[in-house]
Amino acid sequence: xSLKSIVKSPxxxxxxxxxxxxxxxxxxxxxxxxxSNDPQVISHDINLGIPFEASxxxxxxxxHVLEHLNPxxxxxxxxxxxxxxxxxxxxxxxxxxxxxxxxLYLETHQQAWAGDxxxxxxxxxxxxxxxxxxVRKKSGGQMGIYMSRQEIKNAEFVQSRVGDELxxxxxxxxxxxxxxxxxxxxxxxxxxxxRRRMARRFVRWTLGxxxxxAFDEGMFRSQGEIHRWMYDRxxxxxxxxxxxxxxxxxxxxxxxxxxxxxSYQLDSVExxxxxxxxxxxxxxxxESEVISEVA
Length: 295
Hints:
The chain is α/β, with parallel strands linked by helices. It has helices at about 70-85, 100-115, 115-135, 140-145, 155-160, 165-170, 175-180, 185-190, 190-205, 210-220, 235-245, and strands at about 15-20, 30-35, 40-45, 55-65, 85-95, 245-250, 270, 270-275, 280-285. The strands form 2 sheets. Strands 3-2-1-4-5-9-6 form a 7-stranded mixed β-sheet. Strands 7-8 form a two-stranded antiparallel sheet.
């Protein structure tokens, strides 16, 4: 992975790094995201590498970022985390937990097959949770449509899976606000958006409406919303150990080797887990650094 730019690390540089922070960041950390609407967040594309020198941080954290990269890109990101961590530094990764999703899918499937009507509703949700973000063609997908309903038969179960996302989707203006704030809609309003519209018209004119639909789907899938891979504790351990990390462990949303971690409220708010569908893992860069190259 080649770095397009390197930010020289000043002595006062924060020693904790939050990658792909979105709307969840803390002033005590150095925060990076693709787009920034706050001076506390540095705008940077992590596909270009992490723009800091080696051994710049004592802790690196990213939540629900890794699954949006393909497997090779994911390995490169973990390797970059290793590079910018000081020896003994902590990597904390949060992703949707494929193992738990699969177990709940199988449990609700078995119960629904046996005639349990409540389980049948939950089964339909788990099937959607497993597949929707891998295959959706529009922002929000089937999960967004489901959660925006005013009446949800299994609202308690859904909330146990998605946390505060359900309340956001239930807001009357959530659909409109989500569309207005989406990356794709902002793209439409830009110069790049104008070029995209021209290209779309050209595709339809030369190849027809089916090609136009394929063009739209391809543009959507390139915007970063979809999941390109899924992980569980075993596959995460494999990647981390391959890169050279040690002391791999699964922990809770409020448990961490990072000092005063829960006070930053990155994974929990007042003890409530923000993303209950997640697995939380930590590992350490060895005190005696051994660099492992990933092909």
